[in-house]
């Protein structure tokens, strides 16, 4: 009834049986409402996979509506909601697979115990029979050895056939019932690793195919495939994000290096300009110093020439005066006057 009601809701809408007054107060459900099943919108709902199987999860508490799913697929916000719905589905499927793997381990352990066929213990009567048979075989082997030494080959071969019969009788007593062993081998069981079902090994092909085509096997196959694809996509996205971050870091590092090189070039250019300015300034200072030195030299030469001329003039006057004085001392008029 619940499945039929859900089907009618999908085909005719949830308000199909409402009156006009009820429809006025009825709020139409949209695909992004909380009561709508997100996993059903994006992929599948696990509740729909195991109907009428021993793994039945019961009806889903949220709304499944084919029209809402079509509206979601045509919505411009479809891509924005897909990761959220897939994450909800992956969380649900992860829980189912975890419980299923526990069942698989328990089934594997149980089969391992069942495959160990215990050897039935021998009764006292069987033990006595084995002792008698072994005693007979021992005596026959001694007789065969004696006959072989005597060259009686035919008689030795006849006794050897009796020994083979006794060995066969001994084997039939020691081994378990062959029919029971054959039945156990025929009914050997195996475990389905996908859905944890116990199957008959080497069963007929049609039975194996019916199991593979069953709801439970298909449902768990879908869940496992979705989880595998989801994890692979997440891993790929993480790897792409890591590569993108590395590329961005490399681009930033390259830009920093380029900026550093450009800054160094600008600094070197400024340093060259400063060196040129300092060199020009030194050249100007040297020119100015040379000009000052030449000016000082010209002024100094004028003073030195004047001073030297004055000194020469004074020396000439003194020389002339001394000459006149000597002339006077030698004059006769002077002596007479004295």
TrEMBL record:
<dbReference type="GO" id="GO:0006376">
    <property type="term" value="P:mRNA splice site recognition"/>
</dbReference>
<dbReference type="Pfam" id="PF03194">
    <property type="entry name" value="LUC7"/>
</dbReference>
<dbReference type="GO" id="GO:0005685">
    <property type="term" value="C:U1 snRNP"/>
</dbReference>
<feature type="compositionally biased region" description="Basic and acidic residues">
    <location>
        <begin position="308"/>
        <end position="328"/>
    </location>
</feature>
<feature type="region of interest" description="Disordered">
    <location>
        <begin position="239"/>
        <end position="338"/>
    </location>
</feature>
<keyword id="KW-0175">Coiled coil</keyword>
<protein>
    <submittedName>
        <fullName>LUC7 related protein</fullName>
    </submittedName>
</protein>
<feature type="compositionally biased region" description="Basic residues">
    <location>
        <begin position="329"/>
        <end position="338"/>
    </location>
</feature>
<feature type="coiled-coil region">
    <location>
        <begin position="123"/>
        <end position="150"/>
    </location>
</feature>
<dbReference type="GO" id="GO:0003729">
    <property type="term" value="F:mRNA binding"/>
</dbReference>
<feature type="compositionally biased region" description="Basic and acidic residues">
    <location>
        <begin position="239"/>
        <end position="298"/>
    </location>
</feature>
<comment type="similarity">
    <text>Belongs to the Luc7 family.</text>
</comment>
<dbReference type="InterPro" id="IPR004882">
    <property type="entry name" value="Luc7-rel"/>
</dbReference>
């Amino acid at each position: 009834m619940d499945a039929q009601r859900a089907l009618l809701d999908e085909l005719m809408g949830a308000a199909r049986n409402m009156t006009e007054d009820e429809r006025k107060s009825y709020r139409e459900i949209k695909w992004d409402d909380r009561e709508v099943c997100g996993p059903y919108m994006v992929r599948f709902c696990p509740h729909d996979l195991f109907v009428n199987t021993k793994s039945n999860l019961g009806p889903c508490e949220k709304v499944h509506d084919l029209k809402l799913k079509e509206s979601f697929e045509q919505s411009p916000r479809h891509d924005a909601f897909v990761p959220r719905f897939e994450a909800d589905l992956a969380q649900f499927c992860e829980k189912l697979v975890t419980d299923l793997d526990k069942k698989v381990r328990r089934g594997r352990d149980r089969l391992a115990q069942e495959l160990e066929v215990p050897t039935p213990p021998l009764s006292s009567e069987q033990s006595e029979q084995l002792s008698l048979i072994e005693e007979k075989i021992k005596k026959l082997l001694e007789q065969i050895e004696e006959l072989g030494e005597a060259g009686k080959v035919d008689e030795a071969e006849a006794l050897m056939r009796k020994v083979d019969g006794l060995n066969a009788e001994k084997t039939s007593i020691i081994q378990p019932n062959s029919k029971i062993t054959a039945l156990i081998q025929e009914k050997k069981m195996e475990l389905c690793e996908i859905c944890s079902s116990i199957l008959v090994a080497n069963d007929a092909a049609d039975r194996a195919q019916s199991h593979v085509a069953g709801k439970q096997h298909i449902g768990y196959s879908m869940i496992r495939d979705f989880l595998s694809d989801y994890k692979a996509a997440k891993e790929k996205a993480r790897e792409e994000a890591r590569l993108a971050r590395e590329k961005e870091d490399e681009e930033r590092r390259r830009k920093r290096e380029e900026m550093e090189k450009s800054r160094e070039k600008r600094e070197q250019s400024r340093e060259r300009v400063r060196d040129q300015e300092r060199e020009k300034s030194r050249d100007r200072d040297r020119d100015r110093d040379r000009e000052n030195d030449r000016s000082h030299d010209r002024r100094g030469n004028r003073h030195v020439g004047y001073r030297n001329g004055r000194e020469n003039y004074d020396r000439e006057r003194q020389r002339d005066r001394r000459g006149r004085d000597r002339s006077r001392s030698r004059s006769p008029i002077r002596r007479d006057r004295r």
